[in-house]
Amino acid sequence: MYSQRFGILQREIKGPTPKAVIVRAKPPKSHRVEQHLERIRRNYQKHQAVLDSIKSIERDRSKVDWYQQNDRKFVKSLVKARVKDATQGFIINTEERRNKLRELLASEENKYFTEMQLKEETIEERKDKMKEKIKLLKEKKEKERQDFVAEKLDQQFRERCEELRVQLSCIHQEKVCEERKAQIEFNKELKRQKVVEEQMFSKLWEEDRLAKEKRDSEEARRQKELVENTRLGLNAQITAMQAQRLAVQQLKEEEARLVVGPLKCSSWEGQLSGCRTHFTVLFA
Q1: What is the enclosing helix (H) or strand (E) of 85?
Q2: What is the pTM of this model?
Q3: Keyword Coiled coil, does the record have it (predicted)?
Q4: Which of 10, 89, 146, 149 falls 20 to 30 Å from 271 in CA-CA distance?
């Protein structure tokens, strides 16, 4: 058996009788030499293509390395220039701040010195100021004592006067009622605001839940469509591969039938001529 274009073919072909066998001729050696040369030529072309690709990749890599080296040099020089500018600017700003602080300190010192000169007092002036302060303290203490006495007298009068105590009690009760009413209204307002906030939070939570469900449903639909499209694509590829395999098989069978047909006809003709010769000898 030997290899042809579509697989391996048997050299021995059986005839109609058990011991009738015909042998297929071997292909000429020149054809095999040409195939070998063609295979060597293709391998050489592939080798050359690989070498050209490697050379092209090396050239591209050299270009990329050169560009990267230039970029690194440019970035390094740019960083150095910016650092230098920033350092000089910092030094200049530091000197300017120092000068400003020096001027400010000098002006404050002059100001304090002027105030100290203006605030210099004599002993008599200090005595007069101390007397004035003592007088003010005495008046303040006397006023506080009078206020305290007036408050105690008023309290004593309120405790002893029944009508005034009842009236003050009524006023206090009304004030307590008003404060209690205001507190109740305030609590009601707090509860109402709390209910409104809870309703708003519930509404926001429901909207978020619906949006999340919508996103999940959209994602599930997209995943389902993706799986369906993938399945259809795989089915189409499988169908195409099966059709291609069936076409190749039919082509092989057709070629085999075209090759074996003439051989079978020649075998039948040889057997028929042998039978005629045998019958001729017998009847002779």
Answers
A1: helix 29-118
A2: 0.27
A3: yes
A4: 10
